[in-house]
Design goal:
Cytochrome Bc1 Complex, Chain D, domain 2, mainly alpha, two-stranded antiparallel ribbon, 37% helix, 2 strands, 2 domains
Length: 336
């Protein structure tokens, strides 16, 4: 009898293990996939890029860095309608989050930069942003002795140029992914990761057609779409969208679909920052993009789902930046 009991016990254990395995089966047929940690990055470039990302000496004023507008303590953005640049200049468009930006098909709302490296070059020299000519930015970095060994380790040469500076910043930005959201855990098979309201919000999000644009690992960022499909969107800012790049009238008011990862942290919303809350954003998107009036309860469920997309935030230890030398050009906060 004892062997029979043992066999039954083993069979029960196998059954329970099989059930647990079944319950933990990943949901691979959903339009959004889990965020994956980056692989194959150059550690020396990442270290250098992190320093440059936080270095305000890449700006004419000496007080603006990449992190100013893409604050890693605030979801990779600045929570302003438009960023504040050189001499308190108001930016022309809302600053999108840098988190998970490596998943996007292009950079900037109008997609004018093909990749993160090209994007990093723009704000440095843009007058309303950091207002630092590239040649002067290179001179500043090359005048700081502490940067020389970092460039040597990353690129095999101590001399910086704008190509190396932007490549290093881009390599660091590729590390800024946010895995392990509760929605990711649900996708990976954890049935307890989401509440009933959150699951109802996900179903409503899917059934309403939101996933036509917000899909893939970043839940967006993979297409350009017109803002105001069913009804006109009256923007608070004059940005033309993709038409400014292509010159085609058909691309007017077409903008890159933003990622919804960490969206509860990246307010205000849309290219013009006009929606202050997720509830407002869901209401506007429903009416203008889908032709649907979501009830307050439906909006609440969708918002509940959207908040499950917040993942692990980058764990950043602020780098100690090397000191300037006597040869370092002085910052000029009031330069025209």
């Amino acid at each position: 009898m004892k062997p029979a009991k043992l066999t039954c016990a083993v069979a029960l254990a196998w059954t329970l293990a099989a059930c647990a395995s079944f319950a933990a089966s990943p949901r691979t047929d959903e339009p959004i996939q889990p965020i994956q940690a980056p692989k194959g990055l150059n550690a020396a470039k990442v270290e250098l890029g992190e320093m440059l990302y936080f270095d305000p000496r890449l700006s004419a004023s000496g007080i603006i860095s990449c992190n100013t507008c893409h604050n890693l303590a605030m979801g990779g953005t600045d929570n302003l309608q438009t960023s504040i640049g050189h001499k308190w200049t108001a930016g022309p468009i809302n600053a999108p989050t840098v988190l998970n930006s490596s998943f996007a098909l292009a950079q900037f709302w109008d997609g004018r930069a093909a990749d993160l490296k090209a994007q990093a070059a723009g704000p440095i020299q843009a007058g309303p942003e950091m207002s630092m000519p590239h040649d002067l930015a290179v001179d500043v970095i090359n005048s700081i002795p502490g940067y020389a060994p970092k460039f040597k380790a990353a690129f095999g040469t101590e001399k910086a140029d704008i190509d190396k500076i932007t490549e290093a910043i881009a390599e660091f930005e590729k590390t800024l992914v946010t895995p392990n959201s509760r929605f990711d855990k649900w996708l990976q098979g954890d049935d307890k990761a989401l509440s009933a309201d959150e699951l109802a919000g996900w179903k409503l999000f899917k059934d309403s057609g939101c996933v036509a644009c917000h899909n893939g690992p970043a839940a967006g960022g993979t297409s350009f779409q017109k803002m105001g499909v069913v009804a006109e969107y009256k923007a608070a800012l004059p940005a033309e969208g993709r038409a400014a790049v292509t010159g085609k009238d058909a691309d007017r008011f077409n903008f890159k679909v933003p990622t919804l990862r960490n969206v509860e942290l990246t307010y205000p919303y849309f290219h013009d920052g006009a929606a202050r809350t997720l509830d407002q954003a869901v209401d506007i998107m429903g009416r203008l993009q889908l032709g649907r009036e979501f009830s307050a309860a439906e909006r609440g469920q969708i918002v509940a789902f959207l908040k499950t997309l917040t993942g692990d935030q980058p764990k950043i230890t602020l780098p100690t930046l090397p000191p300037s030398s006597d040869k370092t050009p002085a910052p000029n906060p009031f330069r025209e």
